[in-house]
Amino acid sequence: MPILVRLFGAAAILAASAGQAWAAKPPPMLPPVPFEAGPEEFVTRLTTDVPQNRVLNQMEIGARAFWRADYPQAKPALDDAMMRIDAVFADSDNAAKARKLWYDEGSKDFKGEPYERAMAFLYRGLIYLHDGDYENARASFRRGLMQDAFAEEDQNRSDFAVLLYLDAWASHLNGDKDLRDETLVQLKKLRPSFGGFGEKDDTLVWLETGQGPRKLGDGASHSFFVYRRGKPILENQAQVMLGAAALQAYPMEDVFYQASTRGGREIDKILEGKAQFKAVTGGVGSFLADTTVALQDSSALSGGGQFGDAVAAVGVLSGVLLIVSSSAKPQADVRTWSSLPDTIHVLTLASGGKPQDLQARFLKAGLPVADKPIRCEIDENHKQLCLVRAH
Question: Where are the domains of the chain?
Fold first, then answer.
């Protein structure tokens, strides 16, 4: 076969291969669903959306059903998402092999960024708390901490403070004081101003403000994505009104901070699923830093004839590959769990198992902006979980 024909054939094959890579984009974005909406749209999407979005849709169903107190719907949705996350991001040899395969061939299947995976385990753990199953709650919170620690195989330590807080709270409710105190020592390193629990505290008040992080495509052809704080942020502080008394809730976690860092290192951008870090850390704008709760940096990307025709063919081949490769840039995957909050605030009380009539007061820059009732539910052990979100 003449060399010219062979080279043009190679050009065609390589061009087709590169074209296939170019075509492998994330699934198309579906219309946004309002932050405060229920799970119905995402239930429909389980049967109409592409299979690659199953985990994302289950996360949305789980959180939105949770905030409607529809735990029978929230549990299986979160369990399914967690099972599929664990298949790739568990601490086992089989999961490590699955990660290799997933990164190479199936990364368009949504499994979430580390903070999103951690939040799936967090909400499931809260449901275990609601059910009075403190040991499974603690196990779920610890699995969430592991998701934060993976951080794209860098194995950075976890700095997801609210998961440590919930781990300690589950031990407290279960009477495991040694485990509680060990975890509180770890938490103190991240939140030095947190004072711990009262020995008789039996009620957790969980308050969420703001809307969660946004992923935005950036760069040439949106080849990478960056994080921006959710908007609008109409409130950034929370109080619990107990009669005439206003009790300040502690701002335990900035979800945007968790999204925009890995192990305390600030992300510059995420390209092809891998975080690129800024050279200097500490520049992340955190609401917690503005409320005297310090976040600790934890810095751990030409002749004639047949020969002349061959040279010309090589030139054509190079040109084809240059054109195709310039079009084959990865497109940023900006799919995101849209019902997460911006900030999580917490407070514990000693109620003696008596029902509580509590109100939340949300503030911005110290000024009240809204009051909302807090939903409190008592488990079979007379412990209470009280929930409210600003939206």
Answer: 3-389
